[in-house]
Design a protein that fits this description.
By secondary structure, this protein is α/β, with parallel strands linked by helices. It has helices at 2-13, 29-39, 84-93, 111-126, 168-177, 199-208, 225-236, 250-260, 267-277, 285-295, 313-325, 336-343, 364-373, 388-396, 402-405, 408-412, 428-438, 448-469, and strands at 18-21, 46-49, 55-56, 59-62, 74-77, 98-101, 130-132, 138-141, 146-147, 161-165, 185-190, 214-219, 241-245, 280-282, 306-310, 356-357, 379-384, 420-424, 444-445. The protein folds into two domains: 2-294, Succinyl-CoA synthetase domains (Rossmann fold, 3-Layer(aba) Sandwich); 299-469, 3-Layer(aba) Sandwich (Rossmann fold), CATH 3.40.50. Helix content is 42%, strand content 16%. The strands form three sheets. The chain has a seven-stranded mixed sheet with strand order 3-4-2-1-5-6-7, covered by helices on one side. Strand 6 (98-101), helix 4 and strand 7 form a beta-alpha-beta unit. Helix 3 (84-93) packs parallel to helix 4, helix 6 runs parallel beside helix 7 and helix 7 (225-236) runs parallel beside helix 9 (267-277).
Amino acid sequence: MKNEKINDIETFFNPQGIVIIGARSSPGFGYGIPMNLKEKGWEDRLFLVNPKGGQIDGMHVYEKVADVPGPASLAIIIIPAQGIPELLPQLREKGIRHVIIESAGFAETGDSGKALQDETYNILKKHGMRAIGPNCVGIVNTDNKLSTTETIQEAYIPGNTAIIAQSGVFGNILLDKLHLFGLYISKAVTLGNRIDVSEIEMLDYFHKDPLTNVIMMYLEGASNGRLLAKTLYTVTRDKPVLILKSGRTSQGQTATASHTGSLSGEDFLYDGMFSQTGAIRAESLDCLVEFARVFSSQPLPKGPRLGIVTGSGSLGALATDAAVLSGLEVPSHPSTATINEIKKLAPNWMNVKNPLDVGPSGLFKEALGAMMKDTDTDMVLAILTIPHAVFRNFQALGIDLRDWFGELKTIRKLAPEKPALACVVGHQEFLYYATEIAGPDMPVFTSPEMSVKALAALWQYGNWKTKVKK
């Protein structure tokens, strides 16, 4: 039965052809989506429907569904909500079982909208149809360049992270910004009011998706709390699930109800569920994104011991506080072998401890290399610092700062089995430079606290996973 459900969801991401009901020649969803799909090579499998007929950017527009020649297996619906119950049987007659209802005006609007949503659901079930939505923007599949919403070019770069978002616009916003952090997706789905397809089915689907290694979720409320907990427990044994849950306050719960018609529930119950099932809860959108960067690029640590290499003692102290408060360990010294290796090069004023503050010694790359190989640390944080005036002077003189900090992406390879992050506190130009020398396997953060929180989340998940599998 489970495989049948997964195959059923697959049609949304790999349809034979697509019918767009409500295509239009003027700006709006009904215009932007056809243009987007045409640009990405879907024109020969795209059928536009609007009672006015005519053409849109050279594509023929059919006046009614019955005129569509097909073949098509997915419909995107962008018409007023009241017309959808009448439309669904027409689509089923054309052999289309899967629909994405992007129209709003259902349960999120109150009692009358709820009644319309119930009527729509009953028609879907009567005709054996599956639906995502309503009040959503559908799906994205970077593998075949399919998007049922207007999407920027950078969002089509394939990655290993899937997104499940209850809010349509929220999903769009994530796609607009993730590439700025070097984070790319495999697939995304926005569920809206969840008239049919739920976050639980999507977790099942992404669990089995070979292109997905990490799952991000924005959740306003569970469609079935007990089943969600059971599903999370199954999925997280294999893949991390990172969740941003809204509705922590009574006012926030009211906001979710008016947004997607969700009943958020008591927040402490969700905390308990996530803790018991191995899901990682992000306390903010920034946390969700930063956690995803780490989970999608780093191995799980073998233990909680953090080694810190820094050019600033104060930033090292902040990272240490954050680590201890987050449940990590910061050993006071690296191993004897590491101490001996660094002391051969270190000036007398330099204390070879952990955090390892190299100050202006010029030994950052040597210290980082030694810490990466250190047997008494399970993960490493490199905090890069330089006054921007000095950075610009070095750049003007043609001095390669790799001689100072090292080629981070090369040093990273000394211990590929350890999580390793970099942190830059300073000017944006230096951040760009650090990102370049770090490469995709060593994410660069802009605060020591967030760097450590992400590593702590990675350890929390890895530790849970190890205990469950024993």
